[in-house]
Amino acid sequence: MGENMRLSLRTRPREVPSSVGIVHLGIGAFHRAHQAVYTEDAGDGWGICGITQRSATVAEQLGPQDGLYSVLERGPGEPSARIIGAVREVLTGDATVERIADPAVKVISLTVTEKGYRHDPATGRLRREDPEISLDLTGRSPRTVIGRLVRGLARRDAPVTVLCCDNLTANGEALRALVEEFCERSGTRIGCEVAFPSTMVDRIVPSTTPEDLDEAERLLGVRDEGVVVTEPFTQWVIEDTFAAGRPAWDAAGAIFTGDVAPYEKMKLRLLNGSHSMLAYLGSHHTYVADAVAELGDAVRRYMDEDAGPTLDVPLGFDLEAYKSSLLERFANPALRHRTAQIAMDGSQKLPQRLLGVVRDRLAAGAEPRWAALAVAAWMRHVKTARELDDPMADLLRMTVARADTPGQVVDGLLSITDVFGPDLRESKVFRDLLVEHLGGLL
Ligand code: CS2
Fold first, then answer.
1. 156: nearest Cα among 89, 50, 244
2. Where are the domains of the chain?
3. pTM for this prediction
4. Closest ligand 1 atom to Cα of 201
């Protein structure tokens, strides 16, 4: 197998249309297993220019392969691999402004993870003390996602759609607000029409392992250094408010709707909320499938008793079937999704996954026992994890360093308003639940 040729146009010839209509910021594994596959399956010739935000690895992997890579699907049966050709260019961050300014570009999509927006999850505003944002605001050649996006948009005349594909509440609106705030504070004017549809994206994409590379090579007969691994399930719900055309993603199974909010809330609170619960409560398991084997009942009760009652279920949608399907997806043993991958960046994820549920249940006069258990498990993680992978790690660690009792840990962390807002620490019900759970967990 080691003798095999590397994946490239020589091994799989195809036509390369001349123009790239989509610039994607954050071409990590998730984009390649999700939106890029929809773009390929739309079959109408749209190409993607993928931009890596932080590391040059993807450019190094895909460059020699002419942008080609494979998607390895691991479900209940035999794994399968297919080659995707929608990515036509992979560039590093410095190219962002120029590529966004290109009038041939109609869609700018983003998967830069929650922390990539450099906002306060609780208020949705740019983090005031973020040094990179401050420097971008002074007018240097921008380095942050928002700074580059604004600079590129300001250079355009032609209308364009900015499509946020990250797991944030009302992600289109949230991104629009950040762009407007940056414009205001930097005195930048954007002259072209820009649409910011919201989207709900869903596909579980663990990090690729060396075994995945070998498996794909076995299936394809060529070596691909850019394999992404994922589950058979995929879903994309998009608000249909595009400013300048788009691929026929609906032909590839995407759902276009006037209102994404109910889908998004359901996905964030049920899938991602449960995921975070499993990651923190089941941190003694390496893989999600093992964690859910032990903790499936607690997750189900979180869904039934806490998250479920806070949702506005779209008419005709089978919520019970959806919850069961999530537990089945988590239990997929072939996926080898690491709990540690989900556990990172908790400060950026908790608000939209779990704290909205907590707020809504408290407002309804209920006790969010299971959601509080998940939050307490995150608090234990902050207190005890050897390494804390979180943009707020310093503040979190400092906060718990001198807290000895569960009560002190809870009070310290609850007072971080960037995460918990000003309101949650005022709730005696929530605080008591947290102290009780954390006492048990520690
Ligand atoms: C996960 C998500 O890493 C995480 O925090 O919860 O990446 C999750 O796998 C996706 O949102 C599924 O669509």
1. 244
2. 3-257, 261-441
3. 0.96
4. 13
Would the CA dihedral through 98, 9, 47, 223 be positive or negative? negative
| CB 29 less than 6 A from any atom of ligand 1 | no
Find out whether the beta carbon of 326 lies less than 6 Å from any atom of ligand 1.
no
- Residue 207: CB within 6 Å of ligand 1? no
Tell me, using a 6 A CB cutoff, whether residue 341 lines ligand 1.
Answer: yes
| ipTM attached to this prediction | 0.99
Query: Could you give the CA distance from residue 228 to residue 32 in angstroms, rounded to a whole number?
Result: 7
Phi, psi (5° rounding) for residue 3?
-75, -15
224 within ligand 1 shell (Cβ under 6 A)? no
If you search the block for the tokens 């950040």, which residue do you land on?
Answer: 178
Fold of 3-257: Rossmann fold (3.40.50)
Cβ–ligand 1 distance for 275 under 6 Å, the answer yes
How far away, in angstroms, is 204 Cα from ligand 1 center?
6
Give the tokens for residue 152: 């590129």
Residue in 46, 50, 90, 40 with CA at minimum distance from that of residue 70: 40
- The architecture that CATH gives domain 261-441 is Orthogonal Bundle (1.10)
What tens digit of pLDDT does each residue of 105-132 get? 999 999 999 999 999 988 999 997 899 9
The residue whose CB lies within 8 Å of the most ligand 1 atoms, and thus the one to mutate among 31, 164, 272, 322, is 272
